[in-house]
Amino acid sequence: MKHSLFISDLHLCAEQPHSTQLFLHFMQHTAIGAETLYVLGDLFEYWAGDDDLDTPFHKQITDAFAALAASGTQLYIMHGNRDFLMAEKLAAACHATLLPDPTLIDLYGTPTLLTHGDTLCSDDAAYQHFRSQVRTQAWQQQFLVQPLAQRKAFIEQLRARSESEKQYKSSDIMDVNDAAVSNLLREYHYPRLIHGHTHRLKLHRHEVDDHICERWVLGDWHKTGNALRCDATGCAQEIITL
What we know:
Layout: E1 4-7, H1 17-29, E2 36-40, H2 56-70, E3 74-78, H3 88-94, E4 97-99, E5 103-107, E6 110-115, H4 125-134, H5 137-144, H6 148-166, H7 178-187, E7 192-195, E8 202-208, E9 211-217, E10 225-231, E11 234-240
Parallel strand pairs: 1-2, 2-3, 3-4, 6-7, 7-9
Antiparallel strand pairs: 1-10, 5-6, 8-9, 10-11
């Protein structure tokens, strides 16, 4: 049966070889049979710009996507909060299409809304303020003209600060806001919702204006991988191991 796969929050980097091996195993043994693969953000631990594309590690990842595309699987990649600077050169190397966030698709007859998920965490006001700044074209243009090494150093500082600040944030603040979820579902006429970002692998059901909407949350790839498999009969989570 035709099916599509959804993954997010792999946070791939050379310093985490286990996650990379999980990803390569998934691409070669699970994704190979899918009609479409959607990556809903944070494919990489961070992305400093497409001029970092030709490192051996990044080439290993893009080659895996290119091989999957050559087998006939359609590929779509969405920006996450870690890799929002991915651009057309990366997409071309992966033989993939960059998706806007959010994107509404017809998934085997069911309207399905795809988003990374960070905009739903509206209780984290400090993060939302930062996000609004770095997603502007002016900020990105100013950042990308800096030398690559300088950009990477800046990102490393941001990562360290973010990890430190998480210690003082409640678990609820870093999860989605129910009202934000309801508003998004209402705006797009009560679709199924698939997102990542929170790493809280689970199926939720929301009642919005007398409509019951599924919300599938994708998990991270820290110890095991995971994918959401959807076909005409519905969706189910799959755990990816070596």
